[in-house]
Amino acid sequence: MRQPSVISRRVAAAAVSVVLASGAAACAGPEDAGAKSGTSGKGSDVPQKGGTLTVLNAEAQTDFDPARLYTSGGGNVPSLVFRTLTTRNREAGAAGTQVVPDLATDTGRPNKDATEWTYTLKDGLKFEDGTPITSADVKYGIERSFAAELSGGAPYLRDWLVGGDTYQGPYKDPEGLASIVTPDPKTIVFKLRKPEGEFPFVATQTQFAPVPKAKDKGAKYEEHPVSSGPYKVVRNENDGERLVLERNEHWDPETDEERKAYPDRIDVRSGLDEAVINQRLATSSGADAAAVTTDTNLGPAELAQIGSDKALAARVGTGRFGFTNYIAFNPKVKPFDNPKVRQAISYAVNRTSVVNAAGGSALAEPATTFLPEQEAFGFTPYDHFPAGKTGNPEKARQLLKEAGFPNGLTVTLLHSTAQNRTTSPEIATAVQEALGKAGITVELDGQEPNSFNEKRWSVKDAPGFFLSRWGADWPAGGPFLAPIFDGRQIVTNGSNYNHAQLNDPAVNKEIDEINKLTDLKAAAARWGALDKKIGEQALDVPLFHPVYKRLVGKDVKNVVISDWTGVLDVSQVAVK
Predict the structure, then answer these.
(1) In which element (H, E) is residue 276 found?
(2) What residues pair up with 551 in beta bridges, in sequence order?
(3) Which end of the chain, C or N, has fewer beta carbons within 10 A?
(4) What is the pLDDT of residue 321?
(5) Helix or strand or coil: residue 411?
(6) pLDDT in tens, 29-50
(7) How far is it, in rounded angstroms, from Cα 256 to Cα 556?
């Protein structure tokens, strides 16, 4: 995942223990810290069906077509309309990292080497018009995502499916993909080019939502996509700026163990200023009392104000999305081709000042590993270049001397000018000050976001030293490590995420071996060991993992924040 500002497109993996800002741990949310499994208290606090849930967002829910959305676990708002073969377990905490069946009866049945996956659809599945959902509808929905005019979704199937690299979608090739087989209306089989033990995770993405071919309107399908979930679209204005959902009367809760679907109506209003969103949620007057946000965090100043108000603090949920902010090196550029220079920078970094620049310890946690500190990813503790809390400039100077720079050196750090507290001037300045104490003069090169991204994702133009960040598409080590360190994923004519341009045959082989595993716990342990091994090369400097804190309206019940998304799950929320 490229950046947290596109969580609505690329939500992925995560880890969270749901903790209220007041300090009380909870599996449910602000109404009852002792509640279990996402329930929210007793008596009048028990979640009830009915009412309207308002969603106040900064970014519009654009491209509301399952082929074009880049989501994991089915997404947040999209998951209310689009069901997929599998989905995320809608539970708080670590249980929320599990893949569970959705349209399918199980999470998939692999053949011996995980190159073929078979799914069977549940009985009683229907679209919003009452017609049955078949395996052919799922196949067609996936094939649409290959059409150029519907681009934007996750790229995995292009690489994984046999023939996926050349298929151009059903509008140009109505014969479809031979590697997706539907022998009967309830069975669908996927034939892969290589073993993929994490295929059930990919099957959570909205490309796996069924689409009835007769109702497909191409690029205009997003205006009224046919629902397979508990809600249907009744209004879509300005490409998702205003999105209104009402109940799909043909959705059968007996076939859906994950979505609670308490509200009768969901009104998504976007394009709002973040400060306005937080103020409206805090005030909670009128309809805003039953409002949430799926994309707006509280900032340091707002948290300071909330801290003195116990009632308000009890309405703040905390989540940790699986994301790492780090310094990236391009060893093709001098002096970063010298491992001792990279090690010196690793020792010199002051993570306390970086965390403060990111908003403080309430909004960021220091990192010494590339993988987030969550079991689902295979987190294995290590700190190969211990800088302590405030850096180790003496060790850094020693290494610079060994590298041939006894008088220090001058380097340029590329960063974004966006005020995002991740790759922004505040973070760059904190790095600059820490490295200065070790004799490394850092000249800052701040560029607007588009230019910044073009440079850091370019093989040809990437500098040797820059800020970057990465989040996984699902809670596992594969989508975290492979795009960053698999040499076969180096892209020379497009967006390249392997900043170090590492192409180590041993690393590539281990990635292939782990991908064969369908035992996800065993795979996680291998991902953690690989992270630790790669970390010895000092190809990056992990800085911090973000923490998300978000307000909900005073009448909102049943807040569930999982270890998959790190944010409130709208499919669980009640307003009565």
Answers:
(1) helix 274-283
(2) 316
(3) C
(4) 84
(5) strand
(6) 222 222 233 333 334 578 999 9
(7) 23
